[in-house]
Amino acid sequence: xxxxxxxxxxxxxxxxxxxxxxxxxxxxxxxxxxxxxxxxxxxxxxxxxxxxxxxxxxxxxxxxxxxxxxxxxxxxxxxxxxxxxxxxxxxxxxxxxxxxxxxxxxxxxxxxxxxxxxxxxxxxxxxxxxxxxxxxxxxxxxxxxxxxxxxxxxxxxxxxxxxxxxxxxxxxxxxxxxxxxxxxxxxxxxxxxxxxxxxxxxxxxxxxxxxxxxxxxxxxxxxxxxxxxxxxxxxxxxxxxxxxxxxxxxxxxxxxxxxxxxxxxxxxxxxxxxxxxxxxxxxxxxxxxxxxxxxxxxxxxxxxxxxxxxxxxxxxxxxxxxxxxxxxxxxxxxxxxxxxxxxxxxxxxxxxxxxxxxxxxxxxxxxxxxxxxxxxxxxxxxxxxxxxxxxxxxxxxxxxxxxxxxxxxxxxxxxxxxxxxxxxxxxxxxx
Amino acid sequence: xxxxxxxxxxxxxxxxxxxxxxxxxxxxxxxxxxxxxxxxxxxxxxxxxxxxxxxxxxxxxxxxxxxxxxxxxxxxxxxxxxxxxxxxxxxxxxxxxxxxxxxxxxxxxxxxxxxxxxxxxxxxxxxxxxxxxxxxxxxxxxxxxxxxxxxxxxxxxxxxxxxxxxxxxxxxxxxxxxxxxxxxxxxxxxxxxxxxxxxxxxxxxxxxxxxxxxxxxxxxxxxxxxxxxxxxxxxxxxxxxxxxxxxxxxxxxxxxxxxxxxxxxxxxxxxxxxxxxxxxxxxxxxxxxxxxxxxxxxxxxxxxxxxxxxxxxxxxxxxxxxxxxxxxxxxxxxxxxxxxxxxxxxxxxxxxxxxxxxxxxxxxxxxxxxxxxxxxxxxxxxxxxxxxxxxxxxxxxxxxxxxxxxxxxxxxxxxxxxxxxxxxxxxxxxx
Lengths: 431, 431
Known about the structure:
2 copies of one chain form a homodimer.
Chain A: H1 4-15, H2 20-29, E1 39-40, E2 45-46, H3 47-57, H4 60-75, E3 91-96, H5 104-117, E4 122-127, H6 129-133, H7 140-144, H8 147-157, E5 164-168, H9 173-182, H10 188-193, H11 195-204, H12 212-215, H13 217-227, E6 232-235, H14 240-257, E7 266-269, H15 297-305, H16 326-334, H17 338-350, H18 355-381, H19 384-412
Parallel strand pairs in A: 3-4, 4-5, 6-7
Antiparallel strand pairs in A: 1-2
Helix pairs in contact in A: 1-2, 2-4, 8-18, 9-13, 9-19, 13-14, 15-18, 16-18
């Protein structure tokens, strides 16, 4: 529950509807707690005093009710049960490399989960522009241009900047300092054994020309996870070695410090399989087999038309294969009428259902999913000032958290803590 | 000419002799220029205005004369010629790993040269505590404890905090950020080929257990050199590959930025050979074959007595070997009566000069060298507040320089510059 007043004022600035303020305040008071110790810049007072006073005077049942109504109104997600609102010490960390607008694979694979997680836990989302530079150093503007696009994607799908702290990696110097400190705790041999690094080296065809930054990427990721005191990290199975590497560093730091300065983190594994690209290969912007979250109806039609199905399924009457069929993979991900999908699949397998019919259904489904995101995104991208403001507020909060973690880690290395500034610090990206 | 008023006030604080202030002001006005754009914190005004006004009203010949007198008085080096005072854009960078008090090998190899260089160029000396952690991560307090000792050594040998900016690596976050950015520009294969890293890996017996931080050490060193816009780096021949690595990164950054944001650096090679340890092996604190700059007369005698000479030279009348003879190596380094040394060497070679006699001479010579340093150092170490103050002032100046370099490098990566704060920033090591 970081910076309630910051959030209120931001909300007020943007929506300019004072009548929402009380409901919103109630909403945040019932929300998840983070361990940030932010000052409430606007009032010039510290969070604990303010919150304790307010929560003591408002009955909690009322709070919860008001909060639900306000949340449903604000972000259009009506079907959250009050039971899903918990107070917990867990901190969720996720992030994206801003190398282009996000696509439907991101939506199914991680974005929707974040929208759900933000209601239950403190959540940080890191726009990992420095990490994107590890294999884009030759074209850095490709990275910087996409930062604001990614923020627009986040907000358009329902990530709520009042529940989720969105920050920019290159504006968090503490993460670079943590990386440099952690590099002393990991051997070269250990990095060479990291299966994720091994696999990525093969995929990207670096051979011996791996940039050192890419090679050290598990260490930088450990800095990200621990820098936010992340305890829950939603990942794919292939990313588990990254969490293990991070926890090894955590244990080493805690041994050095002779107390638990950092928490270990756990993976949240996704049940859903990863969505393929239209051609059936791995979904990837560079392979041009994905579709953005703000695709037009025409783009959706073209995307679905290009989808790989079953090459042996020439006529509608032929029996067809559902496994590896991209159209069904997308229906599984986005069509909530699961009974009908099961029925469609068996008809397709038997023969008698043409690709044209299944694709037409998928076009409708995707249009239903994309239309509200497209609409929100168009509105958001027209107000870049607001998007920068969201990133700025989140990054300032993230600076406070990461600087305090850096102090703890510095103490393990017998380096003295620095004072964590209460003033608003200068950021590179604000005007 | 960074922060004239800072320096004056510091001087005033410590020596409390107001009559020196004018001479000192003149001294700094004729001294080397650095490119730091510091604010003069005490007056609250910016350097360019203040300096321009003052230099316009004082005749420059007078300035030079006063400055010489003041310098000779202040640090006891009477024999500098006015010709050695130059105005130049070169910036010298050197540094030490604070893993113990400095020893006589440091004095001969680098400290005396720095005392000379500070009169001719802007000079930065970096106390590289983070770099010392790359192979001391298991005992970090070993590093932090020695920081103040090293500052005392610097000042005791005549490094002048008004001419040389002394700063602490772990308090310069911009250096960590530069390291992380540069890691993207260097391949793993390139690091593996670095002869200095190769050699150090053998010397230290890391085999495959090299800490990644140590492996990436040339990149961190490039961050140090470029972070201060260093153009002259006094090094041994074995360190030349480090400069080459740094310059490769500089060229890469300048190509990315499409303008020269960073200068390349040149090595200043030492003519003097490296001093061996007492046992003839490489001088090293861990081998216990070195002697500190504040050694007592007894310690000097014991150190010289333990020196390796010529094992075949049993009696004074035997002919002896001068090459590889540690006593003569130290006489070459510290005895300025070179004619007498040449004569002694040929007598030793012929036979008729015993180890006892040569060692007695060396004891006298070392006592003459060490006595004033020991005296200064005892006085300085008793005033830790002043030593911390020196480090604090230097580190604040260094923060301004390194932050401005970071902004330039960020621009090459299409990252926006951050505002370089004019306020005094919080440091970890000040009370």
